[in-house]
Predict the structure.
Amino acid sequence: MKIQKAFLVLPGVILIPSIIMLSACQLGQQERILPAQIRQLEITGNEINIHANRSLQPGAYIQPSPPKLILTINNADLVQGVPASGEATEGMIKAWQVAVVKSERVQGEETKEIYNVRLTADLTKNATYQLTSTDFGCKLALQDIKFVEKGPETTNIEIPKELYSKIQKMSGPSGMAVATSTPEEEKAAREMLNELVPERPTVEKLPPATTITDLSYRTIEKTFEVVITGDGEFRDFKVNTLDNPVRVYLDIFGIKCKLPKNIFQVNTGNVQQIRIGQYPEKTRVVVELKGKIKDPRIVNVKNKIVISIVY
């Protein structure tokens, strides 16, 4: 009987350490996130489509002179067979190269290898871009930079009828006058006035926005920009900052959000992530940062709000 008891106790003694070792292995596997596997690159004249086994959170910026796009994807690797370089036949992209950049990170007594993928593309001209994550990869679309020229300020002038006879038609520096009295001459005087002081062009106003339809971001040197697009004009909003932790947040009142996700992992420069919160009376967009920043700048143009953060 003593021998049988010893055999009954022995499995329990062996089983408990086994369970502990198995749990430790499982915890170690949960802490480590394997690199995303990039399987295919589709690069046309103005678009870059990257296909992977899961969603990617890239960062990008454009070097202005000479114009070059630099796109970085953290914790990612290239599947064997993905081409390392290529050329585009039309559009803004001339030639491109892609490579895996390996580095080491020391955590305590353990050294881990870090894999990042970097894509560089030579451009025909300076441009802006829209960068979005997809369910299985990411997409970058290059766009022309649009310059808006501001025209001269003009004023409409209403002339009383009793002054029609005093309107002078300028024939030169001396200013010779021709009196007007007939309806035809009245019409000619008004046409002459419109030539001298043209009417102010009418500006089409958008209806008030009710929904956020898109959110994109980009990095240009030491500046991070968030572009928020709505289905109309944003009219009631304000931006604020927090020092500890460092945050920039934008409240847009009377707006709902219909984006498929509310967290955007950025992990580039001093920016960690962007998250969107929905409240009954407003939508809040929060940019989480790692270090100190200068005062953010905000620009509202029609149906877009641009938050510019300088490190």
Remarks:
- Residues 211-310 form a domain with the Immunoglobulin-like fold (CATH 2.60.40.3500).
- Helices lie at 2-31, 183-196.
- The two ends are 76 Å apart (CA to CA).
- The first strand starts at residue 36 and ends at 43.
